[in-house]
Amino acid sequence: MRPLLIAALAALAFPVFAQTLEKSPAVTSPADPYLWLEDVHGEKALAWVEQQNARSLPVLKGDPRYAALHEEALKIVNATDRIPTPSLIGTTVYNFWQDATNVRGLWRRTTPASYATPSPAWETVLDLDQLAKAEGKNWIWHGANCPPPNYRRCLVSLSDGGEDADTVREFDLPTKAFVAGGFALPTSKQTADWLDDDTLIVSRDWGPGTMTASSYPFIVKTLRRGERLDQATEVFRGKPDDVGVSPVVLHDGDGRKVALIVRNVDFFHQETWWLSPKALVKLDLPAKVNLQGLLDGRLIFTTLEDWRGFKAGALLACRPEDCAGAAVILSPGPRESIEQVAVTAHRVVAAVYDNVRGSMRVFAPREGGWTESQLPVAANSSVGVNAAGEASDDVYYSVENFLSPTHLFSANADGGGPTDIKDLPPRFDASNDAVEQFEATSSDGTRIPYFVVHPKAMKLDGSNPTILYAYGGFQVSMLPEYSASIGKLWLERGGVWVLANIRGGGEFGPAWHEAGLKTKRQLIYDDFTAVAKDLIARRITSPRRLGIQGGSNGGLLMGVEFIQHPELWRAVDIQVPLLDMLRFEKIGAGASWVGEYGSVGVPAERAFWETTSPYQNLKAGVAYPEPFFVTATSDDRVTPVHARKMAAKMAAMGLPYLFFENTSGGHAASANLQERAERVALEFTYFVRKLMD
User: Fold this and answer.
1) N- to C-terminal Cα distance for the chain?
2) Residue 94: CB partners within 8 Å, gap ≥ 6?
3) Which residues are annotated as catalytic?
4) pLDDT tens digits, residue range 306-327?
5) pLDDT digits (tens, 9 = 90+) for 548-602
6) Is 428 exposed, middle or buried (0-12, 13-18, 19+ CB in 10 A)?
């Protein structure tokens, strides 16, 4: 599955669309009868969840096709010939690995030479299953921060059950053990980094009144070895109405480091402060910026707004003391976007997309500018940097597309030719499938590209079972990636998979995202509808055979499409969604997303959501398709509240629905590979029942 982590079609009206509902004012009431379901871990709410799972799971698991789908999903996630994703700590290759035996996972390491072989000699560094058993916790890996120059001590982050909140503990790599009496930060939403071997810089919950309305910290302190939390020294204080404040320490290949504090005043705008050796200095950087790394003492960053003559989306470099003198590394064209940037010891490596087709570019500093070269990639592919670091110019990068499994290459960004060191074995028979890219015309005339993955022998008669997926938010791009589960569980059964590059995403840079912010958001929903209608107009599918899927912000997209166009869909898979947009700011981390969705405290923005919010606009007596809600109790970001309340309201109206709430797993709705296989099998069973029967 892809991230969970975004007006009618102009001049086209066919009889099949005749039942399209006009948008009407929201049905409001002085009190929400389902507020009690917002008590996420309350006894009454959890009893309701148990009843809902007991009602829906037998329907899906009792389907005669579920067992085969589940077996196929398990085989995919537990396959031992998966590519072990590399990360670099110094020049050593590390990997976090899960399988049927290591359910919570192994953190392990090997040498680059061994990693390049078919069977690397792995050394276990930390066994999470053993640790969880010894400590009585459901530990979920959140990563490790092991800084130069010694790469000896790490800050290991672990979450109990998959929440965003985690614990941070000091770990010694040579002895492969947690440090007795070392740094240990109790559970919180927090960020910690190393200032030196004996000093951390930390933002976290320091006690009452130290977290924002978005549930993130806004106070940064330094903590020296041996100090208690109440002895830490405050170095920066944001405001309670910020989204949050966090520290980061950047290192380059020559031993320099820059300690920064990022104050997110909203989800997209920030202040960047430099904790210089002499003073705390506010840097002259764009308010909308992505910090990428440090090279030769220069900050590498992407501006997400027009700034000092540079176009939004440009990749830039500056010295912290003189960002007014920033220099351009790359300025993308109108249909290009920079999706990923990695900084090595002496190079900048970027994944750059042109009309959603990837390339891998390498930039080297020279007197008066930057030189550019390219690493080879297959045409019409998705590309990404898997591992790079400041210790060398070695880089691992991957190339894949809808029908071609992932190839992992090792290369030296300083000019060493790439070597294809690992290939994912095919997980499904793609020989009978093809990929095409089309464009639909949205309500304002904008061309919306989308990919269709389909059988070569597909008949254009409207009979093809089709799943349409999109996200449409937060400048997150949807790319042509290889999915074993989609291929095996859907394409091999003759299904069609469609990926829509609607506005709100980052496929064409910041402007593509900003076109659908706040009260302009209906354009995003119109884009999605336009793609659906284009699929139907091309007779690729029909409403009887068309299902849709999306998660998180994409779950909100699903909810809106479910309400606005029930006549277009036979199946709607709503994953970890936002749905109550008149209360989203009061639920989970919702207050942090005001920059994307607006605020109900602003009259015009409230008015928009009063007629658009799925929860408020659900109506009795409408022929909605039967949706499938998928969520998780331990999701402390969106929380399961939205899905719960929508399902409860549908139940009271006598409307059909299916509901599954995993009691662990966080925002991914699955805490480990086994739970992921169950979720995927449930979802495809739902689609097979709805679209293939």
Assistant:
1) 22
2) 86, 87, 88, 107, 108, 109, 125, 144
3) 552, 667
4) 999 999 999 999 999 999 999 9
5) 999 999 999 999 999 999 999 999 999 999 999 999 999 999 999 999 999 999 9
6) buried
